[in-house]
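Take a look at my tokenised protein here and describe the backbone shape.
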Amino acid sequence: MRSRPPRPRSSPASGRRVAMTVDVERIKRAYPIADVIAAHGVALRPTGRRFMGRCPFHHDDRPSLVVYPDTRSYYCFGCGSGGDVIDFIRRTRDLGFAQAIAYLGEQSPPPPAPPAPTHQTPQTVRLSVDDRLILTAACELYHEALFQTPEALRYLEERRVPLWLARRARLGYSDGRSLLAYLKRRRLSVRRAVEMGLFYPDRRPGRDEREALRGRIVIPDLRSGYCGWMTGRVLSGASDRPYLNLALPKPLLGYDAVRGRPRVILTEGVFDWLALLSWGLPACALLGTQPAPHAMRLLDRTRSVVLVLDNDGPGREGAASLADAFGDRAAVVALPEGVKDVSQLNQLPDGRETFFQLLAEAERGVRDVAAAP
């Protein structure tokens, strides 16, 4: 049997495509997997030399995602997904291998490899002035698009979000086609917008980047006059990912508006938070049952913290854990039987009145305990 002759190597002069050599190990060192997963909105807690959190790829009632910094890998014991940081980006962002590499910034020299991960919680990212300009520009564009999209306005009406609140919270809608040209007109960095998760990168010739939040209601986190983060909610239909966050650490949503308040109400979800705002209450959203790593520090000086998490197992466990952490400052509101969350309570004709009654009972109970001999 004759062996095949070796295939000649292509060169730039030949006009053929040159295969891209990728140093996968260097990428894995430069982008610690725990930091990348946390930046995609997964709350991680240290367990020995590992991290644990709720898997973003399936409905995960109990934390089943394990992150192994030592081997730069992750595995979910619930759905079986696993791999390295590139696999995580591919699955999270629905990208091919080359696109995931581009997303992680391999097209330019990666930053110096950080120190080896420890079992401390991943740190937050400080936004540059350019980052703030990009996010704020996107927020304003999406906000204008919202009021030009009847389907999006109907969705908010169905969720009982009033228009005055949509304006105040700068809610928006991504039509999927306007942001790229808008950023270019304002001479803002598209590449940085890709890195923050506003676009899916597409390195194929003649192809533009795709808007990540297209077809979604956009909820921003407003901070002292600028947008620092956002998430997108699908309008309707089944979706494996009803919410899609930017590739930035999740905030304590709405904290800037309650900074310095003596009482803050903490809830889980975005629409729970919007319901509380519509009732005139000082509220923040945890975006899950566990706070972002820095959230507890933000609330150090808050005299009273009211916890109203989802009326399910994880929500009750999360409320109990947070109540222990806040100690005498915490009051826990138990939602009525059959009501899943504050957003669902908001759908009921007497939802607002019911909540204020439950709130008064919870805070009265705390005062009674404090006054007991």
User: Anything to note?
Assistant: Residues 351-371 form the longest helix (21 residues). The domain at 21-103 is CATH 3.90.580.10 (DNA Primase; Chain A).
